[in-house]
Design goal:
The protein has about 190 residues and is α+β, with helices and mostly antiparallel strands. Helix content is about 25%, strand content about 35%. It has three helices and ten strands. A hairpin with a 5-residue loop joins β1 and β2. It starts with a helix and ends with a strand.
Length: about 190
């Protein structure tokens, strides 16, 4: 009786090991992301513009060497992201054309890693805010860039970067979340004259 029980256990173990030989590794898992509520506050520093930004973000003056007054970093510490804002005065048509061309060149520097780069026009005539929004798809370092201007005096460029390896599949939920905040910022931008 003992021998029959022992043989039965051995037979069950061998039968459990057989069967489906097709094995594929499981996809890598990602951490759960907790998104904060969308609540906004007004930035009204000493710059010639004002905008709305989320309460979970922090606006800091850019302290990098060579930065100019009213160059700001909107930090998203929870997501390890930064929206770099750089403001320039438009002093001539030549300066304006150079700034617009620079924005285009900076966006298209990501062509090597990008799968596509789409341009969208921004036009808010009531507030004299015009520009172009660059959506950069793929594993590029920056996924969203824009410039805003009134075409005569003010120019503001923005570029969103994450402090992580650029993998679109892993940052996509956060990118979508922050892009909505960028849209609120763009729609709420006002020039101070």
């Amino acid at each position: 009786m003992r021998l029959a029980g022992f043989l039965m256990i051995i037979a069950m173990l061998f039968s459990a090991c057989g069967g489906n030989r097709d094995y594929s590794p499981k996809p890598r898992g990602y951490f759960r992301i907790e998104f904060p509520d969308k609540v906004y506050q007004q930035y009204d520093g000493g710059c010639p513009f004002t905008f709305q930004y989320p309460k979970y973000a922090v606006v800091e003056i850019d302290s990098m060497r060579g930065s100019k007054p009213c160059w700001l970093n909107v930090q998203f510490p929870q997501f390890k992201g930064t929206l770099h804002l750089s403001y320039e005065d438009i002093t001539s048509k030549k300066v304006f054309n150079e700034l617009v061309e620079d924005a285009h060149l900076f966006a298209f520097k990501h062509t090597i890693k990008a799968t596509s780069i789409d341009e969208g026009a921004i036009a808010h005539p009531a507030t004299k805010v015009y520009g172009i929004y660059y959506t950069i798809d793929g594993n590029a370092a920056s996924s969203a860039q824009f410039f805003l201007t009134d075409s005569t005096r003010h120019y503001l460029r923005g570029a969103l970067y994450f402090n992580t390896e650029p993998r679109l599949d892993s940052i996509q939920p956060v990118l979508t979340f922050i892009k909505k905040d960028m849209d609120v910022m763009i729609q709420g931008l006002r020039w101070k004259n």
